[in-house]
TrEMBL record:
Annotated membrane topology: Single-pass membrane protein
Gene3D superfamilies, per database record: 2.60.40.1820
Localization in the cell: Membrane
Protein name: Late embryogenesis abundant protein LEA-2 subgroup domain-containing protein
Amino acid sequence: MGATQDTTSEQSQTLLPPPQTSPIYGFPVALPPPPDDHPPAYVLLPVYPLVRRRRRLRCCYLPCHPVLSASSYLVALASFLFLLACLLFLVWPSNPEISVVGIRLDRFRIAPLPLSSIDIAMGLDIKIRNPDLFSIDYSSIHSSLFYRGEDLGSVTTLGGRIAARGVSYVDADLHLDGVRLLGDLFYLIGDVAKGSVPFDSVTEIKGRLRIFFFDVPIKGKISCVVHVKPEDQSIRYEDCRPV
């Protein structure tokens, strides 16, 4: 009887449907990387307040700024003065340079006593150089001849113009006839006996230099010592120097 009931219950269980279960959902997930044996090192720095950093920068900037401004001002002032000095050096007028490139003795004669006069004809080749950046207008060139300080005579040539940084050549001819020497008669007799009669020649130029709207007066002078040999009427010695 009991066996029959167990058999009946087993048959009834086999006929019933299996129990329903809830579904299970899944998502693919990447596996975490394996642990690193040497992790990266980190340096921890202290954080300063922003206000304190601004104060430090401002304290460094304020004292340095006036020093830089003063040095820049001094450099600019020195450069300006240097350029001004160079400009004045180039523009500042200077006197013309005069030199005697040649002396000619055309005639020389001494009259015997009691006249004791001198006849002399001498020519000077004068070179005039203008060192300025502006042209020169010279009014005249005056040449004088002296014997032991006594003025024997002079000659004046016409003026002209010399270009800036230019050179001009002028001939000055002295013709003196019958010039009597009273105070220096004994010196003249001694110089003739020695065979050398000394003369002094002074040449002077006067003019003006025009700079923009201004006329600047200029002048130049040169002195020459000439020893004349009476026997053959030649120049024995000559020396010219600016005065």
